[in-house]
Amino acid sequence: MNRVFTKMLLGALVTLATASVASAQTATPKAELSAGYQFQKFSEDGPNIGKGWYADIAGGVAKNVSLVGQVTGGYKSESLSFGSSTTSVSMNVHSFMGGVRFNSPEGKSSFFVQLLAGAVRIGAGTSVPGTSASVSDSDTAKAILGGIGFTGQVAKNLSVRIGGDYVRVFPDGDSGFILRAQAGLVYAFGGR
Asked: 157: domain range?
């Protein structure tokens, strides 16, 4: 955990230094609200979760620094056949995180690096169609996130955002990771 956190912190500090040098450029908005689509990939051999969403709110605390709160969700369902019987299997993943985003504005666009910490909740269940038999379980684990992205302005207060995250999850003495890709819209309140 310490090596991953150290690398993320170093990357954030480099971005912050770059952002502070660009003092003649546009400042971070006072606040942003962003939402969109998210794709998730679990570890090396884990499942892909293509049905997902994210939402975040960020408030500018310095010229190129924002505090961020983010929630995400992802869902996957499959039907598995065993001989003449079929079983339905579902999985859901939600994260609740907060932290800091460092922006490097370039005119009407901005590159960013973010460091967030919080929790990831993973749930899974199975049921046999046509019966009341079902089993489900969930677990919540601590997590840290390092992410990068790009925001490009398309109208006065409206931008598009693309980004990628590396989420390190620490369930009960173990660890794993989730890779995430996002695309969404950003509405800015003041400062542009």
From this structure: 2-189
pTM beyond 0.85, yes or no: no
CA gap 180, 48 in Å, rounded: 10
Domain holding 97: CATH number? 2.40.160.20
Q: Do residues 111 and 103 touch, judged by C-beta distance below 8 A?
A: yes
Span 16-65, pLDDT tens digits: 444 444 443 456 778 999 999 999 998 877 788 889 999 999 999 998 99
Q: Which of 156, 165, 154, 51 is nearest to 112 (CA)?
A: 165
- Per the structure, how many domains does the chain have? 1
> H or E segment at 17?
helix 2-21
DSSP state of 172: T
- Return the C-alpha torsion angle 158, 162, 168, 169, nearest 10: 60
C-alpha dist (Å) from residue 61 to 65, 98, 139: 6, 14, 34
- 10 Å CB burial of residue 44 (0-12, 13-18, 19+) is exposed
